[in-house]
Amino acid sequence: VVTGGDGFIGRHLVRKLLTSNSFEVVVISNTPNINESIMNDEHMVKGKLQENNPTMYYSADIRDRSTIGKIFSRVKPEACVHLAAKISVADSIKNPEETMSVNVNGTLNVLQACHENHVKNFAFASSAAVYGDVRELPIKETATLNPLSAYGTSKMKAEQHVESYVRQKKIQNAILFRIFNVYGYGKADESDVVTKFAKRLSNGLPPIIYGKGNFTRDFISVDDVTDAIDLSIRKMERTENNSNHVGLGTSPIFNVGTGIPTSINELAQKMIDIFGLKLSPEYVQGDDSQGTILHSYASTSMARRELNFLTKTNLETGLRNMIE
Length: 324
Description:
Number of strands: 13
Number of helices: 12
Structural class: alpha/beta
Largest sheet: 7 strands, parallel
Strand order of the largest sheet: 3-2-1-4-5-6-11
Low-confidence stretches: 44-50, 243-248
Strand content: 15-25%
Order of helices and strands: EHEHHEHEHHEHEEHEEEHEEHEHH
Radius of gyration: 19 Å
């Protein structure tokens, strides 16, 4: 099962899982007519997804515990990748109740459905937003969590629920991902800096940078993110099939990033060059649209060691592929 399978990361993951010919996939999303939505996506069609793929589609809100429970009872999945979430930091500040409802209560509903239907393997998409403003860089998974938004807090609380289900042996295996700044084809989040820059540049307008543009972020391709999730599913399967091992026993947490800091100035210049425009960024004084976090990039040693995860797409290549 992939919850949020019609979202940005979800569509890429579903395409990857189906083209690997290893999985039957059940997609849950609150998108009406989700089957038509995914099959009409040009990028999905390029991935050679056909209507005879072993895929089931369910339109449902993860806050609807009864419906989610019935879907899991009907399909009896072996693994669940939980991506469904409210993802906008800005929206979480304006509407914290809804973000908490979806990201915390919705996650509890999915966890309970997994428990009641004996789902052994659970992968959860968390966020680097749980860290807040960490001064010791690169950011390690052991860093103290100090989220600065309702979104970050909701992901932290959801992580705690996942961990409690594993400790109580309600779920055999779980892996949590703290995903950094993911970008790629199909992302439409208006608060995302790559999306903002691309939208303006595609109209021949200079990117707008708030402040001096010297703060840094860790930009990772969505294809690399789906690789990490795929590796985690396979790791849990190996654990499950090992008769001498009753489960991971804890919820391993992995940063999913490149470990490479990129300033917003560098990002803007790369995108201007890819578009082939002779422009300079437009600097706007005042509040920094990216929040108060100055520098954020991941320590990737844990994912590299435990999952054999290595990013394959450098930023320039990933941006070029997305823009083209």
